[in-house]
């Protein structure tokens, strides 16, 4: 016989928040589908099982309960509720739309099912944080956020702010336990002479000498009821959590939408692709991945259309480059520029900004994300915001990703509102406020420097087209010419002989002594080594100004995404930083420039006093 649940509304007590106030605390500008996807996926990711190499699963299914399902809700799950509740009328209809949100390969809602139970430091409290407590902090290091506010997104998606929760956990004994409870967060109300917060539970009422507790159905009782309401069950060794959002607010879209399930589903699909791509992109380690599914009725929707977008592909490459650098390696993609973001006089490393210049097709579905930097957490790699920079002007499309270093993840997390959709340094104090503020300013500076066209040099501009055209003639010419080198004598350039030519810099100078094409041992890149002589009498920074030849012999400036300095060192072998070639006066150095095969480039060197 199917169990009948008890109704337990929460009376007002000292410090309690009304249910409608709880929802307002979330505070977000995100549309309902995007908020639902971001917050529930974040909770699922934080709950993943870390042992082993299994990939967690996150699944959204949009469907309808038939008449028998609605009757089960009416008679067994919600046999009692407050007078005038909107859910009561909805349960009289012959069917009801629902959203089933499930995760597997996750731990489930572990820990005690009572709010007054004592736990040891480090023991899980997932159940009470999600079911009983609003805004409970995510204790897990480098986790995504807060369980209590994350669940609020699911309640906001329901017309009746009501969700059914089914979870399966593994106990310390090694046995598995299923848990089932329904929860609502409504406006406050009065009933039978008492005031109630609007937070309500339907489960098993347990009374003792202290207070009345709302406990979930357990074991077979939980399974029997949940199995008749949910589509996605549990395997023998599976743990995880499923939510059933009742009567979704499919009209909760922006004004440009006509509402309805189809529009909501499409908005959710867009939200999955734009917010969860760090988890779904290909060719990555299992510990970074999450299997994501979106099902409309019985039809699984395609979530891979974004792979046709050049912006998406470049964002993925930017993320891979940052991962490599933050793991102690180097970016393996020569078309990605990785900029270390530092703070303070000691140049404390805050994070890394990766930038690229995608070549947009005629109908790139992510074109609106060109000229944005995707801000994301470090370890969780959950997207906070695609930050736009409307005052940064540049002709070419560009795309970027920024991640703080893992040691500062918690600092940036403190700058997030409960909806995790921006970094607001005004919420911080002291050096943490300065760190986030300056870090974001350095990101802006990095973007500006990347997209800013190099200043034209009238003394060398006339050589640019000659050098570029010579490079087009073939690899025997090296594929690159330094402006001001001995271009008037192509035979000299072909042999890489040392000649003299001066590249004019603003009040400073550097001479190109010679160049040579390096052996072609790369399927993607060509390389040319330049030998330079600094003629200034003071220490300077050598700055390369590089461009790519286009039709008509003209030069398109390149900010380092395709043509870049790969290596540089002084004549005695002392290595120099490629992005900061600072040298003493009257110094000879060699600079290796890399660029794609078959591309003609123009390269000018100038100096800046330091």
TrEMBL record:
Biased composition (Basic residues): 494-503
Region (Disordered), start-end ranges: 482-505
Name of the protein this chain belongs to: Uncharacterized protein
